Amino acid sequence: MIYHLALLLICQLVGEVTSRSFALPIPGPVLGMTLLLILLLIRPAVAKATTPTATGLLSHLSLLFVPAGVGVVGHFDKLGENGLAILATLVISTVIALAVGALTFVKLVRT
Amino acid sequence: MTDVSDIWIYLSQEPLLWLTATLVCYLAGDTVSRLCKRHPIANPVLIAVALLAAILWATGTPYATYFEGAQFVHFMLGPATVALAIPLYNNLHHLKATALPLIAALVAGSTTALLTAVGIGMAFGLPLDILLSLAPKSTTAPVAIGIANEIGGSATLTAVLVILTGVIGAITVTTLMNALRITDYRARGLAAGVAAHGIGTARAFQVNETAGAFAGVGMGLNALLTALIAPYIMGLLF
Do B227 and A25 touch (CB under 8 A)? Predict the structure, then answer.
């Protein structure tokens, strides 16, 4: 498990350093994910070995957003007098974006 | 016997208390979610956040103190994002087979998320600084903050809007997809990742591994695409 955690951290580290060195618009962890994927394609055996650690981490992905979520509560006043309009905008926009994304995929997969 | 207030002073200075509280409140949220048969309204993040916010408020604890404990959990977001490569790899055959619909859905979902956020915000008469902070709301937080800084939005406000968008997406996606009769977990997951980043991806993993893999891809590619097009689109609009 420590070996696999180290692998994840090394990929993230390389990703962060690359992202910052070249001022790329992609965050370090996303680059790290791409790097790990390339590694897995070269060495498929690593995927099998890393799967339990990754599954353990990803099955509770929600937990990792809790600290940021608590931070948001303290900033509700930033929404100010526009709070209701902002909330309505977020709900409508997110629902439309979800629908457009999924419908586009389904329509094109069928044809 | 040590005075209770002495113990409190010790605890309030150590990360132990708030790290434990974060895990316990999440477990409480997760238990409620499981008892509700993973009903989307019983979102574990939402329940945990509400509990912790109430505890911080009741004990008069500043967020900075809380974060000293919670930072260890927050830190794991990075390695977890890297770990998305594993389900992605395990679902590679799905992804290869659907490359074209995937790219099309990404472009459609991503631009819709950006344009509707700004358009609806304008219709509600929101001021320009809020509109600029709204634009990257479907993108994963670090990228969204970078975009907001570039186009002239507020980083703090964007962080708040991004988290809210994630929670809204995670809560609405299941009901919406059922209403639209979309049963394809690849489509459902991808849409959740594109429109509601990591929190949508977390919800997708709760439902189905393939949905989770597609959500992870959607989140990653949307981060890249929004970073490329948002400054350009906002430049055209304003």
Answer: yes
Number of domains in chain B: 2
Query: Touching check for B184 and chain A: CB below 8 Å?
Result: yes
Q: Which domain range does residue B213 map to?
A: 83-237
Provide the whole-model pTM.
0.89
pLDDT, tens digit, 9 for 90 and up, residues B59-107? 999 999 999 999 999 999 899 989 989 988 988 888 899 999 999 999 9
pLDDT beneath 50: ranges in chain B: none
Subunit contact A27:B140, Cβ cutoff 8 A: yes
ipTM attached to this prediction: 0.90
Asked if residue B87 and residue B183 are part of one domain, the reply reads yes
CB B199 within 8 A of CB B169: yes
What is the rounded CA–CA span in Å between residue B235 and residue B238? 6
Residues 6+ apart with CB under 8 A from B122: B131
- Estimate the crossing angle of helix A83-110 against helix B155-179, to 10 degrees: 50
Nearest to B81 among A33, A73, A99 (CB): A33
Which of B55, B82, B229 is the mutation pick for testing A, counting most A CBs within 10 A?
B82
Give the DSSP per-residue string, B150-198: HHT--HHHHHHHHHHHHHHHHHHHHHHHHHTT---HHHHHHHHHHHHHH
Residue B95 shares a structural domain with residue B41: no
Tokens of B121: 């915000």
B49 & B119 share domain: no
Which of B21, B55, B75 terminates a domain? The answer is B75
Q: How far is B70 from chain A (nearest CA, A)?
A: 6
